[in-house]
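Handout, page 2. Input:
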Amino acid sequence: MFKKVFFSIIGLVILLSAGYFFVRKCSYTASLPVEPAIPYIHNEGQAQGTTYSATYLQPQGVDLQLKIDSAFRKFDTSLSTYNSNSIITQINRNVDTVLTDKHFETMFNTAMEVSKNTNGAFDITVGPLVKAWGFAFGNKNHSKLPDVKQFLPFVGYKKVQLVNHKVIKNHPKILIDANAIAQGYSADVMGELLEKYGCKNYVFEIGGEVVCKGVNQKGEKWKIGIDKPIDDSTGVTKEIQSILSISNMAVTTSGNYRKYYYKDGKKYAHHIDPRTGYPVVHSLLSVTVIAPRCIEADAYACSFMVMGMDSALRVYKSVPKMECYFIYVDNDGKNQVKYTSGFKKYLAD
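Output:
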């Protein structure tokens, strides 16, 4: 399973209408019986330390939940740091014989591309710092702040390579942490699974990572809510900031208002800058990213929370079909919204 650590992907709520929407085939011959209605199927479950939901129209009315759960189990054998036998866990334990698979290599190659585009603001080798700050790898000790200098030598995306299905690390203390990208990737994988079984209309969400295609039960684009950034480590308090009307895209939100703790009166959020080793402090509260693939939306949303809004606005232009929505605090302490030019067409309210 996965748990979001230094980059939390949160704040997206799928707004589903009650009941079923029925798709009926028209009959032009009065003597023929009307074909039975095919309802949208809705599944809910647990995976990667969080919950998932799927709503889809399967042409034969087949419930795909068992296949979804099986796909998650297979995915976790590659990228879950909480699976003691997974590929990523064995790499972190420096097992010489472990070979990477398709899932790991897709994650790794995309991560390297995002790292280059963000000048290292995104970095899957941030693991030692995430662990030191008490946000992952079983460490929740916040009683003492870490000595960052002793961990920085083991952080840097240029210190790892993928060669012939093996990860080559510059130092054995380097830890690969895919939590800021793997959950978004898993949403892509589940979307591909639904399409494999004939689903042309669906929405899939896990931990706030969303992929959608086609239309909902009402024949409309899918409605996705963006949460207001309200400090609440329990995740109970939720209010909707804006509603999106979207199809054939992925969307995710990253923010600093769920994973944090206070030490000596100072707030430490889980967004850690891999380049400095410290949790970021700036005016950006959350960023929502829309992109063709959830793996990219996830990674860039995390990166932008580290970079801040001004730097993020310069980077997003290099990613085709990406749009962004920022919530930030102005000089008067009030929340403000800014979004890229192409984002407006997705706003439903």
